[in-house]
Amino acid sequence: MSEKSTVTTDNNSACTDGCVKLPNPHLSTLDHDALFHIQVPLHDTDTLKDFSKIKFVCIGGTPGRMKLLAQKLARELNLTKCQDNSKEDNFDYAFTTERYSGFKVGPVFCVNHGIGQPSVAVVLHEVFKLLQAAGCSNVTLIRIGTCGGIGLEPGTTVITSGVLTAGFKEVYVTSALGRPLELPVKVDPELVREISSCASDNGNLDLKVKVGKTFCAEDFYQSQGRLDGSFCDYSKEDQICFLNKLQSSGVCNIEMESAAVLALAHKVQIRAAVICVVIVNRLKCDLPSLTAEEMSQIESYPLELVTRYIKRHFSKGD
Amino acid sequence: MSEKSTVTTDNNSACTDGCVKLPNPHLSTLDHDALFHIQVPLHDTDTLKDFSKIKFVCIGGTPGRMKLLAQKLARELNLTKCQDNSKEDNFDYAFTTERYSGFKVGPVFCVNHGIGQPSVAVVLHEVFKLLQAAGCSNVTLIRIGTCGGIGLEPGTTVITSGVLTAGFKEVYVTSALGRPLELPVKVDPELVREISSCASDNGNLDLKVKVGKTFCAEDFYQSQGRLDGSFCDYSKEDQICFLNKLQSSGVCNIEMESAAVLALAHKVQIRAAVICVVIVNRLKCDLPSLTAEEMSQIESYPLELVTRYIKRHFSKGD
């Protein structure tokens, strides 16, 4: 699995057996280490043993959606220990802090990441450290979320084939030691194909899936070309020009975390994908207008797709 | 960066009577408008009437801390309607979504903002729109939070006198229409002085307050010069050099939201301040090592300082 992740650059430590091996020489020299935000114990052997079998990490914005996914996976993967949804503690392991919540069901760990790249970066750093401490191997990271569509109607599920950020560059912009830092964003085309091929795995529901580029924005308003933020320095014509430029660049959707997810995963040689469902067609309007029921239904599509993919993976006996 | 996007000053609409008047000409022409993330109704006249008297918006990372602040303010401002802490509904108005929660007590609205500048930008855009819709005037925005200290010990409360971001520039870096956008970060020195002068308002607890610059980072690890992230591309010596450079630049603390808060507030002409308490002295170590009790105690200091400031404001009959 891991040899397929397209690691083309970098000072990353090579890891031929697929084990998670983080490119941070300092970790082995620390007097004390801990996961400050997620508070999963890094030195508890039982916990680490439990996590050692993790093959999938699923992340998404809200705790509720990730809990729903964990419950769905428990049912569909026949993880009997986790199947009693009436119980709050129906997971192998769960944590809840004021920032992040996580739910482990068998070989899958579902964690919420909040809004925006800094928020997802914090939790990914700590999840990656947990995976290494637990001795995990051949792990796949999948973000599920919602997005604005570019010419796509609500309910279409987009699998990201590439990411553009401000300046129309394929980089995640962050900083280190006070200096701007650009990390390459890499997509695993094979993983995209595998997930995409699950769209019709269940006869009852053919998911409408589109593979295309994602624009990753810094906020929900000006960065996404909306007119309805608290301030707006451009005209309706400027907006149309921006959205058309996205479309002509092959961009299918806009969200706020994909660049960080794919760049950070690439940096630590974990293969990763981003799956987001459209909640508004931005070529028609700025404000999503779905009812709560419609939103709930539509938000279930990426959960369904990722569940099919994970189910297929384990039915193959991988 | 395109010349169109370099908004460095202030096409803000002037508003001489202190009313919130947002610099977005499109808002008055929208067919339909709503606050997508906070879900406070924008067209309910009773709600807007209730919000029209807001004079302070307090924001902080977690819902729990903002609820604590709202309860404390209710007690100390003698807002009897809100004083029964045993009740869940002891606020004038409260909302809870999976993203953000808010608690209104009299003239103060306390809202959580999550982690990082994108997350705080989303909620601020919507809170500013609410303030305008409600016809609010002379509003002050205060962020409370935690931070790493530069040469300051845990428990010291830092009031931000200026913000540096990556590249050691005093700007909030975001984007608009696919182009990088730098917005100026402005501090109100008078507001900083007013808040600072409240440090000894209560004989029982002299708060240790420091006024100084803040470095606003993109993540908790490399952006803040830590060695204990999932990857690290620099040496211990590089780290020391970075932290020393911060100190010689007058930086007292590091956090993740100040630039966006002060730039966005300035953009809409709302005065704003940032108050963060130190939870680790970064010149000594990377990982905070406070007990849960110590953390809880220390996190109460910015709540205490902002409460004293708001209390003093209303005791003056402003």
Automatic annotation (TrEMBL), chains A, B:
Top-level taxon: Eukaryota
Positions bound to phosphate: R99, R143, I144, G145, T146
Residue ranges constituting the Nucleoside phosphorylase domain according to the UniProt record: 55-285
Pfam families noted in UniProt: PNP_UDP_1
Gene3D superfamilies, alphabetized: Nucleoside phosphorylase domain
Binding-site positions, substrate: Q224, R226
GO molecular function, one term: uridine phosphorylase activity
A GO cellular component entry from the record: cytosol
GO biological process, one term: uridine catabolic process
InterPro entries: Nucleoside_phosphorylase_d (IPR000845), Nucleoside_phosphorylase_sf (IPR035994), Uridine_phosphorylase_euk (IPR010059)
NCBIfam families found in the cross-reference section: euk_UDPppase (TIGR01719)
The family this protein is said to belong to: Belongs to the PNP/UDP phosphorylase family.
Protein name: Uridine phosphorylase
